Amino acid sequence: MSNPAIAEQVAAEAKAPPAAAAYKLVKTYGKGETTVHALREVSVEFAAGEFTAIMGPSGSGKSTLMHCLAGLDTATSGNVQIGDIALTGLSDKQMTKLRRDLVGFVFQSFNLVPTLTARENITLPLDIAGKKVDKDWMATVVERLGLADRLGHRPSELSGGQVQRVACARALVGRPQIIFGDEPTGNLDSRSSAEVLSILRTSVDDFGQTVVIVTHDPRAASYADRVIFLADGQIVNDQRGLATDDIYEYMKHLDEHAPSQLAQD
Ligand SMILES: Nc1ncnc2c1ncn2[C@@H]1O[C@H](COP(=O)(O)OP(=O)(O)OP(=O)(O)O)[C@@H](O)[C@H]1O
Fold first, then answer.
1. Selecting from 3.40.50.300, 3.30.70.60, 3.40.50.2000, 1.20.840.10, what CATH number does the domain 14-264 have?
2. What is the ipTM of this complex?
3. What percent of the chain is predicted at pLDDT more than 70?
4. Which of 35, 36, 216 has the most ligand 1 atoms within 8 A of CB, as the residue to mutate?
């Protein structure tokens, strides 16, 4: 490599720790004949500043993987890291602090507090953590999400799309290490879905945010840089730059084949 600037950048990227990672993650429910192997030694790294979608048939382990990555559930064995912090062995209190400080969430059910205004909902995690709100950053996020004239409204006075945008703003305003979305567009019409996905896309492109979502929708997954497919608790495909049709075809293929057959394809 003759260009020293490029060589330096490549070396820096090679050293940068992933925003989150799982190593040999196993999650087993139950015992004996009723054992469910939700995750079978899943290892995956999520690079900073990338948008990843996790897909797979129902019951393939998507939510379990996301919940373990986000510190909402503990694995049977294996390791999870958020930045350079290993989650194994953290106390409940440390885990709560880690989720509060490093992780943003956008879930299907939004989880907004009905009695608080949009503004209060957006700053709630920072207020609970006793952290100062960066007013300029808040203004940027609110402006970009088109919420400037809705900040005084309560969730019941907002449309479904606006509620979801408030949930996105709440996840973005603390500049977390990583944002996890569990079916973030699951309850939305196609216009509001596209809005939320383009907000997440923009947060990656313009703010360098790291985003990982679980989705059933190939169109939603096509907003991501990378799509990871799970089947029967294992990663069976991991690709970048897929279009909606490619994702749709692969999902059809996954639904039609057992994981053991996929490995031989
Ligand atoms: N608390 C639990 N107790 C027992 N089995 C569980 C529990 N939670 C999940 N499972 C099982 O673990 C497997 C993976 O579940 P998971 O919810 O991660 O799948 P998923 O891919 O997110 O599914 P879906 O797309 O339907 O939400 C399934 O077989 C599920 O039934």
1. 3.40.50.300
2. 0.97
3. 90
4. 36
